[in-house]
Amino acid sequence: VMLREGRWDEAYDAFISALKLENFRYAEASYNLGRLYAARGQSDLAVREWRRALAVDPKHDAAAQALARGDEEDVIVVAPKVKAPKPSAPATAVNTSAGPRPVARLTLDQTSYDYLQRARGASERGKALEAVDNYKRVLNREGGYFAPANLELSYALLSLKRYEEAQAQLLQVSQRDGARYPVSYFHLARLYELKGDLKLAEEAFYKAHDANVSANVRYLLDVSRVREKQGNFKGALEAMERYVTVVQQQGEKPAWCDERLAALRAKAQ
Asked: Do residues 201 and 193 touch, judged by C-beta distance below 8 A?
């Protein structure tokens, strides 16, 4: 329910709690945690959870289907060791249009990859300080930037209420890879709203929405909320109406929508 409502942090806590109770052998929880990661733009972690669901229950059709639809470009792999180059042969023309292009995956060397997995494991176990330490080791080896590590480090810092450090990590991801990881805008917006920077919060929520309109329609609710806080009731109503239009097209309309629309219309008059 929380996942459907876009309450991702609460949904994450619920899924992780369920997995811990079952020693991380709970196929349905792993499948839905994968859905959460996919919604946040963390395809690599989504794929990991769907594989874990299938390892527990090989007949979990939804996980198999989700895995088949997964984006291979976001799967993090260990980079092959570079061998010494052989003497080059005379150059020949290459037909670059022939055949499919190779998939451009995210790569890390073995040591960085191991640090990343340790960080993720610590984060799942609720050991935020240990997670932060290992994420930083990855980043130190990667020149300060490897988008999944920066993003996941920001979550660990948020859980520790180290907001300024989290904001610095989120800014890097949003500025360099915001289209690929729109959730970075979402968490930036939450931090801005927390600090009372409502205009910045509105802009960041809207960027999260614009990065992938169909998947991120729930961000319009956040836009509506911060506009209302600013006294922009017509703008809040417009965002809410857009949200309702989209969810109706998707065959849904939460019962509370009519009450929310009526309240905003009264304020906008």
From this structure: yes
Amino acid identity of 44?
D
Find how far residue 44's CA is from the centre of its chain.
Answer: 10
Q: Computed from CA positions of residues 254, 36, 238, 210, in that sequence, does the dihedral angle turn out positive or negative?
A: negative
Give the list of residues 6+ apart from residue 229 with CB closer than 8 angstroms, or none. 193, 198
Q: Give CA separation, 122 vs 31, 46, 88, 150, 153, in Å.
A: 20, 17, 46, 16, 12
Helices (H), the chain: 8-21, 27-39, 43-56, 61-69, 110-124, 128-141, 147-159, 163-177, 183-195, 198-211, 219-229, 233-249, 257-268
| Per-residue pLDDT tens over the stretch 206-232 | 998 888 655 677 888 999 999 999 999
Contacts of 252 (CB under 8 A, 6+ apart): none
For residues 122 and 131, is the Cβ–Cβ distance under 8 A? yes
pLDDT for residue 182? 86
Give CA–CA dist 73/82, Å, rounded.
21
Total Cβ atoms within 10 A of residue 22 = 13
Which of 122, 124, 112 has its CA nearest to residue 148? 112
Listed residue (22, 24, 76, 20) closest to 55, CA to CA: 24
pTM of the full structure: 0.80
Six token digits for residue 195 = 């600090």
Number of Cα atoms under 13 Å in the Cβ half of residue 107:
8
